[in-house]
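FIELD: query
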Amino acid sequence: MTGLQTPLFSCKNNHSLSKGHGHRHDATPPTSNDAQVAPTSPTGKDHQEMTLHNYKILIVDDSKSVLYKLQQAFASTAYEVTTVDDPLKAYQMIENEQFHIVISDIVMPKLDGLTLLRKIKNYNGMIQVLMITGDITINNTLNAFRYGAVDIFFKPIEDMAELIKAVDATADKLDRINAILHKLTM
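FIELD: result
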């Protein structure tokens, strides 16, 4: 690959957080281990070889322990990860910053994840959303896909590598979309 490029699609504003492994986490402060881990995927490939772009991920869950576990799982990837425990704040962040992928819980106070999903898709349909939930129902699952989620995972997430693979596949989809858009703008 020729290096990291900025995706063609974006939200209203292109506010940048720190690059590389300097993740911003609202759940807990970064540790010294964050900067020491090589960016690799669960398959062992260099993550920058797998994707063309460095995508920003927002993880939304009202449980700080879930946010911490997900933060740790993504620490060894090249993704720029932000976590937040308030879905209303999450939506404000989506409006003010450029996120490419959102991972959201479904059952949360103030604003449920399915409503957040619909708001995200109405705001910018290019933002890819994966859902996580401990409230495992056919209704939640069908509605998540109906409203535009690309995948759903049930809590507790026992194999974080599966979630990371799903995010990698989502990043590959975004790479393909951006390659097509790039060709159309040439």
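FIELD: remark
The two ends are 19 Å apart (CA to CA).
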